[in-house]
Specification:
Elements lengths: L26 H4 L4 E3 L3 E4 L6 H13 L2 E8 L5 H7 L4 E7 L8 H17 L3 E5 L6 H12 L4 H11 L8 H11 L4 H17 L4 H11 L1
Parallel strand pairs: 2-5, 3-4, 3-5
Antiparallel strand pairs: 1-2
Helix pairs in contact: 4-5, 5-6, 5-7, 7-8
Length: about 220
Amino acid sequence: MSTPTPARITTVDLHEARDDLPSPSDAADWHRRLCLVGDRIVLSGDLPAYEPEARAAIVEWIRAGITGIVDCRGEHSDQDLVAEVARSLGYVHVGIDDDGGPRPDWWFDTGVDGAVDLLTGTSGRILVHCHMGINRGPSMAYAILLWLGWHHLEALDAIRAARPISAVLYAEDAVEWWARRSARSETEALRMRREVRGWLNDHDIDAATAIRQIRNAS
């Protein structure tokens, strides 16, 4: 049996700004990079498929101050491996497919409530991720930021600044969910959704190319 090609595990020092960040067009170099949004939310892709590298990445997560994980993938879960390597890490699995369809309220409710439990249970950071860190993970992180009191457009700015390959495909669903959960008026909910849609249109990225680059590098 041939030895698997080592996956890219690229972390950053989350305490200091770095001048050597990859270009936003180099999606593969952003895949598993830890991207801090605000003080306590970290975005990234998932663990490498090769188990020794996955175990090493979990150790890197802990060194980066991560104490909890919100896994948004419907296709897989690393909960057993994470528990084996670091039982102290909290783990919330809120799996769903990245099919481009509307995100149901239960997905945001479960993910956000789980994230809040992780945030209140420790003083560390939580990692929110899907497979590539392009659509599901950033969209769930966006919902968490809304719950934390961020403005709906400033949260999008922060996510994109921290992780340039974040398409945040389900941001409209997230802000619509938040409007219902926070009992906003129908008029305000419509205004927020329109503003989010306008932001996404004005800040459109080539997610298809990013996905292809990450697949080719994996």
